[in-house]
Amino acid sequence: MTDPTGLEQARTKMTEAGVAPAAIETFTRFYHLLQSGESGLIREDDVDPVVDIPNRAELTIGDDSAAAALARTAMLKLNGGLGTSMGMDQAKSLLPVRVAPSSDAGAGAAAGAGQPEMLTFLDIIVGQVRAAREATGARLPLLFMNSFRTRDDSLAALERYPDIAVDGLPVDFLQNREPKLLTADLTPVTWEKDPDLEWCPPGHGDLYPALHTSGVVVALLEAGFRYLCVSNSDNLGATPDATIAGWFAASGAPYAAELCRKTPADVKGGQLVIRKADGRMVQRETAQTHPDDVAASLDATRHPFFHTNNLWFDLEALAAELERTSGVLELPLIRNDKTVDPADSSSPKVVQIESAMGAAVGVFEGATAIEVERSRFLPVKTTNDLLVLRSDVYDLTPDYRLEAQALAPLVDLDKAHYKLIDGFTERFAAGAPSLRDADSLTVRGDWTFGAGVRVEGKAELAGDGGTVPDGATVGPEGF
Asked: What domains can be seen in the chain, in order of their start residue?
């Protein structure tokens, strides 16, 4: 039986830690849903697929309308992730990604003598916004939602860009945190080995109580802005886009989501569906999909789109909803079962209460979606993704956009050697191989890649490992 003091203990712990009241009330709402056995699952029989939406490539938005909408748009990047799945202990956005497109003393990680300058996610995001400002004249505020773990390092890195702040608006605000709950009785876990592991982020649905607490939405409105584009900081494809801004402004919608067409690589991620009960568009995350419905949800002939997590908001509609709910939006619960120490499977089993920011599509009446090019979805969740992004599959243009020069191959590196960033970096110290002519790259074993390596076709490396020589070509039979 659930310990009746579990919620009280959790609320006290959050209050003593200085967690915002809106976040505590959001947690309380989800706790009650968890107690009642709510799973948050959305069954396939209860929904229809989203199929008929506008396509960005087919829009005819006048230049003046697009420019006017972008002039009233702000950019927000979710920057709370530590990259723990890759063994990082700092903001993922500080990971070096690409060589700078040109000499730029104000950007990039320090490089040694004779070494090319490397830019981080953060550097490239700033470069994209700066370039859009210069090209359009828009003020384009750039804000970050940081966590307690990413804030100091990220703000320190932004000090080299004093021009990024706009009209006294804050450069960042903090997301919240909540206690992990013991699966056995839903009481807050205690973990003396590392008390930080007693806490977890509430998922990116925490955007809403964090926005309410910070006052950012009101500040943007008072500064003359009407629209907000939100995306993850590890997705360098989500650049400022006047065409989408113009379309969104003309639509009159309170909310819009960017969707991409599925490819064979898209086996995870959320999707929008139409709830049969009321015809409302809602989001279904992977964790909200019943095991019996997984095949149907992944079927691109039935559900052709996946969610990019790039969102657009009408700030007036968002402000009204945050005011009405005191920042506690009625989002679906996502139950995430873990161990208190993710690296120790023998540590106590816990429940993390989460929600998805994209689930707000079901909150805003009249919410809509738009199909966008794959170039607007370039996330880095694993070192597999990072290798492709660092390779010659993409060129980084002078305006800091990543332009694909070939279809991105499927990369599958041996997790035993490449999953963590230190191991990955050691084995690709000479740089990423050429992947433009590759359909896929599968690596099993401990292989170190030399300089100037080329990968072609459906390439494979197997065995215990070794060194791929400088200038070698890796193909279906190795090199």
From this structure: 6-376 (3.90.550.10), 383-474 (2.160.10.10)
